[in-house]
Design goal:
Blueprint: E1 29-32, E2 52-58, E3 61-67, H1 74-90, H2 98-103, E4 112-113, E5 116-118, H3 121-136, H4 146-149, H5 164-170, E6 179-182, E7 187-190, H6 200-217, E8 223-227, E9 230-234, E10 243-248, E11 257-263, E12 267-272, E13 277-280, E14 283-286, E15 301-308, H7 311-335, E16 340-345, E17 350-352, H8 356-359, E18 362-364
Helix pairs in contact: 1-6, 3-7, 6-7
């Protein structure tokens, strides 16, 4: 059994929001230098040169969309509506979602031929993405981890470590090899009755990419999409300068950053042990679970940040690289085109991929 030990004095208050109430990875990136962070339906724009912004609770997290080169607030409304649409596809816990019905197929029959199930384009595509990363990581990232994640509740008022017997019983069910997808036919094959899928570690990234696609289709060229910390930039600011994206300092107030980066038209996603966690008997338990042991990873990492073109890749890679640890995670990130990463170890040292500083302007903060 692997546990993550950390001084109780460093344990901070658990994050108030978590996507789909599942074991999702919440990015620690926060916006800096953005002039409009408003409540939904409000416009603080002093004139047409000011950005418009909306913030709502969606996907069980805080969603903010800020547009810099348009005053059409209907775009913001439609982005929020898209979040609602995708929650009804990918939520693991909402009983009316497509994924929930698939996971609970014995209770809620879905269209099937033997063990093959018909699903939507979006669900087939995201499951396929998840399987690719499961294979890439050799199971360190595993979308079949739902039988395990459903045992852990990191949002409860009094979170507790599950009984070890329940964890051990769940482990044999967590195997992505039991899932296959035919994207041409939108068919999912599940080889065992107890196979269940968890998409929390990549769903926000996928949704952010779809919001970006929509805004670009509406001729938006300057915007920031922030899904609970998964930050996706469309272009840069209207004056051609970069967006300033700050990465939250682990185990610190959300206003404190460990680094600030200049970002244009990229995704920034972080996975860390400090966002969703609880302490029991002096031990910190966090939501990044090892599908081989059933307990949180304990590999000397506090956080991993990924900069990529697509947010779904950043979402998956931040979890995958964390799971692989510093050495193997660094090797994976450096092997991929158009991906940069930095790793924060338990001594608060920052380790960058080899070309990071050549590609991205970054300033470390105290």
């Amino acid at each position: 059994m692997t546990l993550y030990h950390i001084s109780a004095k460093k344990l901070i208050k658990r994050c108030a929001f978590s996507m789909f109430t599942a074991s999702l990875i919440l990015c620690s990136a926060v916006l800096s230098g953005c002039s409009a962070q408003t409540k939904s339906g409000e416009n603080t724009a002093a004139d047409s040169r000011e950005p418009i912004s909306a913030t709502e609770i969606k996907l069980n997290t805080v969603v903010t969309v800020t547009i810099y080169d348009s005053q059409d607030r209907d775009l913001l409304t439609k982005c929020m509506n898209l979040c609602d649409k995708y929650e009804k596809v990918f939520s693991r816990t909402a009983a009316d979602s497509e994924l929930y019905k698939l996971n609970h197929r014995k209770l809620t029959p879905v269209e099937r031929t033997e063990d093959t199930y018909q699903v939507s384009d979006d669900l087939a595509e995201l499951i396929s993405e998840g399987l690719d990363y499961s294979e890439l990581s050799k199971g360190a990232f595993d979308i079949a981890i739902e039988p395990l994640t459903s045992l852990w509740d990191f949002t409860a008022e009094d979170s507790q470590v599950p009984e070890d017997s329940l964890i051990q019983a769940a482990l044999p069910k967590c195997d992505y090899h039991n899932i296959s997808v035919d994207k041409d036919k939108n068919e999912i094959t599940l080889k065992t009755d107890d196979t269940a899928i968890e998409l929390g570690a990549i769903a926000k990234g996928y949704i952010a990419d779809r919001l970006k696609d929509y805004l670009i289709s509406q001729n938006v060229k300057s915007a920031i999409i922030n899904l609970g910390g998964n930050v996706l930039c469309i272009g840069g600011k209207p004056d051609t300068s970069a967006f300033k994206i700050g990465i939250q300092k682990p185990f610190a107030d959300r206003s404190e950053t460990i680094a600030v980066m200049d970002i244009r038209d990229k995704s920034v996603v972080s996975s860390g042990i400090y966002e969703r966690c609880f302490e029991q008997d002096g031990i910190l338990y966090h939501h990044l679970l090892n599908p081989k042991t059933g307990y949180p990873y304990d590999n000397g990492l506090i956080a991993v940040t990924i900069i990529s073109d697509k947010s779904v890749d950043g979402d998956a890679l931040s979890t995958t690289c964390f799971a692989l640890g510093l050495e193997d995670g660094m090797k994976l990130a450096e092997s991929l085109d158009d991906v940069q990463a930095f790793f924060v170890t338990s001594d608060y040292e920052i380790h960058y991929t080899k070309d990071f500083r050549k590609k991205i302007k970054v300033s470390e903060t105290e």
